[in-house]
Amino acid sequence: MTKELILLATSKKYGKYCVAGIDTKTGNWIRLVSHNSDAHYAIDAKDLVLDNGCMAQKLDIVELELTDRAISYFQTENYIIRKNSVWHYKGKSSIAEVSVLHPPNRQEFIFYDTSRKLAKAHYARLPLEQIYSLLLITPDKAEVEITQREQEKRVTLKLEYRGRTYEALPVTDREFIQLCVNLEPGLYPMHKKGIMLCSVGECFERDQQHYKLVAGIMLED
After folding, report:
1. CB 170: neighbour CB atoms within 10 A?
2. What does the pLDDT look like over 118-152, one tens digit per residue?
3. CA 175, CA 47: separation in Å to the nearest integer?
4. 15, 56, 66, 104: which could join 136 in a potential S-S bond, CB 3.0 to 4.6 Å?
5. How far is CA 123 from CA 41, 94, 113, 162, in A?
6. Is residue 185 within 8 Å of residue 177, measured between CB atoms?
7. Helix residue ranges, H only, the chain
8. pLDDT tier at 38 (50, 70, 90 boundaries)?
9. Could you tell me the residue range of the domain that residue 136 belongs to?
10. Which residue in 219, 149, 198, 218 sits closest to 29, CA to CA?
């Protein structure tokens, strides 16, 4: 099947990429996955090279071939990409266009509650129609938190959304992390408005928890 989508995340995942966006015809979510179980079905960098020679970026409109849906117990938005198929660049979208096609803040919470993680057992209690792992939001307030762990800086976001304060969520957006590379540890208020794509990550076997992430950050100029 051929799908055209607006990309809202090309974020880091196990050394490869987590890629997600919205269908330009329906406004529905599509998360792109591969057949590579060793890489937790992440997308390889070579697959992100478009027919114009550029790497796919957030807000790019792309057309590509998919083979099937790949619904899991915690992710209902997954589609398998056709191996070695070309991704066609169709243009550039905008925050305003995305917000019309798929209005943000459709859910009361960022994935069911205000915590930063969800127990694997949580999903056993939910009917399929209530399971979602992608969410577009415009937070009431956001602060970038930079922490230092040995040689690695960690970037998280402290969010207020629909009047509730959330535990800090890790950022996996590669471009945004690069913007923060020279910041010293501390809290930095975000003054620009925009939209953010939140995601639920894979289950960590050591604690049987799924961690919430901010996978795509798109800010107004």
Report:
1. 17
2. 999 999 899 999 999 999 999 999 999 999 887 78
3. 18
4. 104
5. 20, 34, 13, 23
6. no
7. 95-101, 174-179
8. low
9. 103-219
10. 198
Amino acid at 168: A
Q: For residue 7, give every residue at least 6 positions away whose Cβ sits within 8 Å of its Cβ, in sequence order, or none.
A: 19, 20, 21, 56, 57, 58, 59, 60, 61, 62
Whether residues 78 and 113 fall in one domain: no
This prediction's pTM: 0.93
Which amino acid is present at 55?
Answer: M
- Residue by residue, DSSP assigns 40-75 as TTPBPGGGGBBTTSSBP-TTEEEEEEEEEE---SS-
Q: Which two tokens stand for residue 123?
A: 């999903």
Amino acid at 120: K
Cα gap 8→135, rounded to integer Å: 11
